[in-house]
Amino acid sequence: MVFNRILLMSTLAFASLAHAGAPGGGPTEVVLDGARAAALAAAIPVFRDKQPEADLTKFRVHVHPADQGTFQVVFEPQQADEGAPTLGGRTVHGRELNVWINAADNSLDRIAFAR
After folding, report:
1. Distance CA 85, CA 64 (A)
2. Greater confidence, 88 or 79?
C-alpha cells in the first residue's frame, strides 16, 4: 500500500514536471481524478515490465475514461526529433503500449502493442 502511494505521488509529480517546459510561458497543470490517477499508477508497472529499456519521460500518456468498466492507458512514444508523436507503431524511444485497467479494483484487464 505504501509503495502504491509513493508510485502515485511520483507519477503525479512526473506528470507536472513533464509539462514544465510547455510553450506559453509556464507550466501546464495536469489534473486527474482519483480513479484515473489510480489506473495510471496501476499501468506504469506494466509499461516498465513490457518495455524495460524504454524511458517513460520520452512518452506521452493518455488516460481514457472508463469504458465497460475499464480505463485505457496509452503510452505513446515521442518522435525522434521531439516533434508531435503519432499514435501507433514504434519510434526510437519504444513502442506504443495500450493498457486496460479494471476500474473496480485497478487490476490489469489486458494489454496490446500498437500496430
Report:
1. 17
2. 79
CA atoms lying within 13 Å on the CB side of residue 4? 10
How many residues can be counted in the chain? 115
Q: Note if the pTM is more than 0.85.
A: no
Q: Of 50, 71, 61, whose CA–CA distance to 15 is shortest?
A: 61
100 DSSP β-pair partners: 72, 110
Closest CA to 39 of 89, 68, 14, 4: 4
What's 52's DSSP letter? T
CA-to-CA distance for 54 and 106, rounded, in angstroms?
A: 23
Task: Give residue 102's identity as a one-letter amino acid code.
Answer: N
